[in-house]
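Is zinc ion placement plausible here? Inputs below.
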Amino acid sequence: MILLVISSIICLQAYEIDVNTFSNYLDVQNRHLHLEWLLNMDKKYINATSSYSFQVVGRQINKISLDIYKLNIYSTYLKNGVLLPHTIDSPYADSDQGQRLNIQLDRTYYRGEYVELSIKYSIDSKSRAISFMTKEQTSTKTMPYLFSQCEDANCRALAPLQDTPAIKQTYTATIIYKDTEAKDVFMSADESKEQFKILNKPQDEATFTWKYKYFIQKVPIPSYLIAIVAGNIQKVPTSTGGRTFLVSEPDKLAAYTEELKEMEQFLLAIEQYIGPYTWGTYTLVIQPPSFPIGGMENPLLTFANPSIMTGTGSGLAVTIHEMAHSWFGNTITCVNWANMWINEGFTVFLERKASLIHYNIPDDIKLNAIIGNTSMYQDMLGYGLESNFSSLHPDTTGLNPDDSFSEIPYEKGYQFLNYLESIVGEQDFKMMLRAYLAQYKYQSIDQQEFQNFLLRYLQEQGVDDYSTKRYKILENWNRWVYSPGLPPVFVDFSTNKLTQALDYSNAYITADGKQPTNWQDYKTFLHSQKQIFLEDLFKKAENNQLKLTVVEQIDKDLKLTQENDFELKFRWFRAILTAGDKNRFMQIADFLGAVGRGKMVYPVYRALNKLDHDFAVQTFRSHETFYHPIARNNIINILGLKDSFIQ
Ligand code: BES
Ligand code: ZN
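Reply from A.M.:
I modeled the complex. Tokens:
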């Protein structure tokens, strides 16, 4: 009896549960997924079959529940063809988290047994995971285009899945497409030499030429890392003999390759800090401008918004960041979205370590941490400084975890790791992170497990002053993780480059519409200093200190309205709209139709909406079909429009 109790305690899954999945993942876990998709790019739907190898990990089961979101489910059946009855219910009245698909099994299955089953279903343009674009919406205008975006909880709109980062599975896929509708297709997987058995052939094989492409992802991954892109796209290496590749529409390929020629060096810089890249190759897809975020770390196939291609290399931190996810996020994964900093905080930490190795500008790292801290603070104010969304452990029960997306897991997580590093020491901290990766690779964990590991590691290594270090680590830990608002300990990133950027904006305010003597300093600024200058202008505008005459003088000197670098341009537009400037509405409307990256368009819409709601709505309506469904929904909320999702 006592033995039984002890063994059940040992077996108990000690990690936090995921409140954002409807699946019974604690009892049964998928080990392998196979997708067969027949793409109808023009008609915007996908005929799909998904096949699974579920392993029972609880005592026994007689049903399997999966997450779905606006998928059309046709049939569920066992590998031997026996149909299984299924039902669909919505545990929450609002459908933001989707529905639950319940599959009744033919018998009871016990711990250790496998259940192999398949689902026939289709995906249409209601799917929030896939953006179907017409050829007119692409750059080369020759073929339709589609891309997926699954993080956080959108892969349930791609296939019935255990949509939780807690579960990892390998996957294979067969993608069938018309040669007139796509030049090529890529997934977050390797191309497979093996051709998988086709379950459903295209019906009109005589009329069209269909192409077949086979993929395999041998590393177990969480379902939010499944990804696909198809269209008039092409893949080229970014350097000779390297591991890094680039995918985009052919008209942009040459310029992008030129700007990304250091990609291999980025990977080397990250490896220098953290150890070898184990995934094989690394491919970056530059998506159309409606891609709703800066970058997404799909394994072997990062997606990025073209706004990272500024022509000057100033946007490439996103590439380093997404590469760094190959270790933190894709190798070790957070067990639920409340622990997102286990992905993002660690990734920002590694990104900045690698940037320091590659560019060797310590001030730039500090300035980026300051910029990050400012946006984090703005996000906290948005949620409320007392809201648990302002902590490193947001509670998303009953909500779409996307709603808790903010800079907080990135920057508070980064500051926490810096703080821990300052206690442990740089060298020991680096070795600890390497050991942590070796220990938990291909697993999903929560922050408590990280703490356990950190302490165990330091003790086992016999580091100096272990007990003092242990005390310091634990002293503020829970406040770092659970308390809302600013970190419990101030982490100092100040540098005289910060003062210089702030002096510069002050000089413009003091010059009161004339040209300050130091106006040419801007040209020598680091990119991060330029951002800080523009952030400061915004702050001044909020305090009614930015006069329109000053706006005119700055624009005359620095030509910011004509700026090609959107990281600067969006900050400029936000600042001048907040100052009340109505002289650049046309350029602002153009900008809002040229990029669909949330980080850049939401702040501008917010400022525009405050100044002139009608013009904001009119601008939105004129670009509505350009935006990704996720961005479109967010803008609708910002503008206070009551609108239903485009069906
Ligand atoms: N994993 C994120 C993107 C993400 C997070 C998508 C949460 C959906 C939900 C990605 O790695 C990321 O952080 N992208 C940033 C850029 C980065 C340099 C901070 C972005 O898109 O802005
Ligand atoms: Zn990230």
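Short version: Residues 496-639 form a domain with the Serine Threonine Protein Phosphatase 5, Tetratricopeptide repeat fold (CATH 1.25.40.320).
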